[in-house]
Amino acid sequence: MEAQFWLDRWREGVTGFHQERVTPLLAKYWPGLEVTPGSRVLVPLCGKTLDMVWLAQQGHEVLGVELSPLAVEQFFAANGLTPTVRKTAAGDLYRAGNIEILCGDIFALDAETLAACAGVYDRAALVALPPDMRKRYAAHVYAGLAPGARGLLITLDYDQEMMAGPPFSVGDAEVQALYEGHTQVRQLDRRAMLDKEPKFKERGLTWLDTLVYALERRG
Predict the structure, then answer these.
(1) pLDDT averaged over the chain?
(2) Which of 102, 106, 116, 131 is the most buried if burial means most Cβ atoms within 10 Å?
């Protein structure tokens, strides 16, 4: 999954992963994490998700990270926001109200920025990355958060031999292994989703589960 893969998908409009609503599992499980209102919440590989608007409405300072400038521009335009833009070492930083989006590589986030995040919301990042990048991503992002930082992680579990990702299958055993040593992982939910996702049936899947986790950075 080179950067160009995602840039091309946004340019070509192949963005079936984008939802035109707030993720119900976010609204259900985020309040239970008790992330302090006013604190910064990281949304890696954010695209133009409406989940950032919802998080901002909960009183959080939202920091999205997205490679595609098209996605960033579409997010602000769709929500009637006019951002200011300033250049940083990691990329252009767009801001409107309490939502910022860094147009750049998630691996370019520096230690200071990560340590300032008290929360993280990951619906589309981990499952977008192949195995070798998932290990690097978990080590860079989650191990870099401040002790006590909390997050909500949503993954998919299916037979990877039946469908090529992305989104990739990231089952419970892999989740536990990826975060072992620096982040406490607690599964909150697991539910069969294939009947609600006909596009995955069309790609050959016979079962598909969504998994939801609460994460907490160890001290």
Answers:
(1) 93
(2) 102
